[in-house]
Design brief:
- By secondary structure, the protein is α/β, with parallel strands linked by helices.
- The chain has one domain: Rossmann fold.
- 35% of the residues lie in helices and 22% in strands.
- The protein contains ten helices and eight strands.
- Strands 1, 2, 3, 4, 5, 6, 7 and 8 form an eight-stranded mixed β-sheet that branches.
- It comes from Salinarimonas soli.
- This is Class I SAM-dependent methyltransferase.
Length: 278
């Protein structure tokens, strides 16, 4: 708890601390530290997918990482080696991430509210902003990585609305936030690699337990939650399970297991879905 408090105090709050972005980042760091070995298989799958996405690119000028977070699920060294420029984008960059980024001469940080709704919620704007406009307009961006952020984007605004009401925003704002990010990704001319959890399963652990990288097959799924809030994506290039919380962390005898989908080239996958091969 002391480490979390110190990290909150040390983190610059340029972007709307009142929306909970700093607290969310610190909480993610805390859980990821506790569950380091449990999360490692998921993180390695994510890194592998990004490496696949960049492997056959004809040009590698700029890589843009959306939702860079703790940089544990992206191959930062490989991106730095493979591209002339790497931009890490998130609402908050914790001090440890700022220190790590400084090790790479071609890695920079951009502090951006990827939801585009922070100013709207705080009464500083009358509509959603366009958080990715300067990046979409940059012809040098050859790879965009949306790194396990899609399902997370509505959470802080949703909590803010629960505390403060929603007199001037749509009732379905959290659902719209997911859709807006999907639409934003489609605007890029470069390749888009998307990694996102799509479903949360409450899984009852049997007497033999539930290992971190184990699929939930053979265990009773007690509940399912659609993390994309009704939005549908095409059939993924890769899919796996991620034990976010082992039995007992959230509820005794129950593990939280997320189903993750990965797309190494999202636009190509959409095209295959619209025009399937005969």
């Amino acid at each position: 708890m002391l480490a979390e408090l110190l990290l909150r105090l040390a983190t610059p709050s340029v972007l709307h601390r009142s929306l909970g972005f700093v607290s969310d980042s610190v909480a993610l760091w805390s859980r990821a530290t506790r569950r380091r070995s449990d999360w490692a298989p998921h993180e390695e799958r994510c890194k592998g997918l990004v490496c696949e996405a960049m492997r056959d690119l004809e040009r590698r000028h700029t890589a843009l990482v959306l939702g860079s977070g703790l940089c544990r699920d992206i191959p930062l060294e490989a991106l730095s080696d493979g591209f002339q420029r790497v931009i890490l984008v998130d609402a908050v960059h914790l001090p440890l991430i700022r220190r790590r980024a400084r090790r790479f001469a071609n890695v920079s940080l951009a502090t951006v509210d990827l939801t585009g709704v922070a100013d709207w919620l705080l009464g500083r704007a009358d509509r959603r902003g366009d958080p990715l406009r300067p990046f979409v307009a940059d012809p040098a961006i050859d790879l965009v990585v949306s790194a396990n952020v899609l399902s997370q984007l509505p959470l802080a605004p949703e909590r803010y609305l629960a505390r403060n009401g929603r007199p001037h925003v749509p009732e379905d704002l959290p659902e719209r936030i997911v859709g807006w990010h999907i639409d934003d990704l489609a605007r890029f001319r470069g390749r888009v690699c998307l990694m996102t959890d799509v479903e949360c399963l409450d899984v009852a652990a049997t007497a033999r337990g539930l290992r971190a990288a184990e699929p939930p097959g053979g265990h009773a799924v007690l509940a399912r939650l659609d993390l994309l809030r009704g939005h549908e994506l095409p059939v993924p290039d890769a899919a796996w399970t991620w034990t976010v919380a082992p039995p007992g962390e959230v509820e005794r005898g129950v593990a939280l297991v997320h189903v993750v989908h990965g797309y190494k080239d999202l636009a190509a996958t959409w095209r295959r879905t619209a025009h399937p091969a005969p």
